[in-house]
Design brief:
Length: about 120
């Protein structure tokens, strides 16, 4: 039986779950105005064409720009609450921010792995 490291995955899933639950609880407050961009599927680099990877790279750049806008929106929403912001609202904003950054890093790692697989397959 193979052992898989699950601690990091469980923590990320927990953060995302908490952020989603918090988003639901605060859907009528100022911290619910930002729209989370849809993720980009990354093709299998060992079978993808160069054109597919270039198109994916372009889509990822647009996605990352949208995510930067989302993160800025979170900051703006929190700032708009001013001194009235509660500790729970700050914590929820931080969870949403961290989940978004984790997703951006995950997508970048997936794309980099696909590029490495493409290069390895092309070198043969």
């Amino acid at each position: 039986m193979q052992n898989f490291p699950t601690t990091g995955l469980i923590q990320k899933v927990s953060k995302l779950f908490i952020a989603c639950a918090a988003f639901g609880l605060l859907s009528n407050t100022a911290l619910a105005e930002c729209n989370y961009p849809d993720s980009i599927p990354v093709p299998d680099g060992s079978t993808a064409s160069e054109a597919e990877l270039v198109a994916t790279q372009t889509a990822i750049k647009q996605y990352m720009a949208s995510m930067e806008g989302y993160l800025a929106c979170l900051d703006e929403e929190a700032a708009a609450l001013g001194p009235e912001i509660t500790e729970d609202q700050i914590r929820i904003r931080d969870l949403r921010h961290d989940a978004a950054v984790d997703e951006m890093e995950k997508l970048a790692a997936e794309f980099n792995a696909a590029v490495r697989a493409f290069k390895k397959n092309s070198a043969r």
